[in-house]
Amino acid sequence: QVQLVESGGGLVQAGGSLKLSCVASGRSFSAYFLGWFRLAPGQKREFVAAIRSGGGSYYADSVKGRFTISRDNAKNTVYLQIDSLKPEDTAVYYCAAGTLGLVADTTSYQSWGQGTQVTVSS
Q1: What are φ and ψ of residue 43, in 5° steps?
Q2: Calpha distance 50→101 (Å, rounded)
Q3: Tens of pLDDT, residues 58-91
Q4: Looking at the chain, which terminus has fewer C-beta neighbours within 10 angstroms, N or C?
């Protein structure tokens, strides 16, 4: 397994941007598919985006066109660029690493970070 640490969250006004980072330690980072999920108060953890080892990316419909996931295997890092932020994007954002299964399914991931808070003011 890998250990994951997110950073880059914060307080931003609606319409602004943030770039979240998630650094992994451990072996075989490039073999994992990586996902971003978010958890808002009173809601279930929600899939946001994922990227496979080969670079193929997937997005939730609610974030398509505004969020961009990328990875740098040389730096053991996955990123989430968030543009045109909306108040409903407010949540704790988690990155996760998995090896098998559906990328939008939380059960496909073996390792999770501690989360980073994103708060969007209107």
Answers
A1: -125, 170
A2: 12
A3: 999 999 999 999 999 999 999 999 999 999 999 9
A4: C
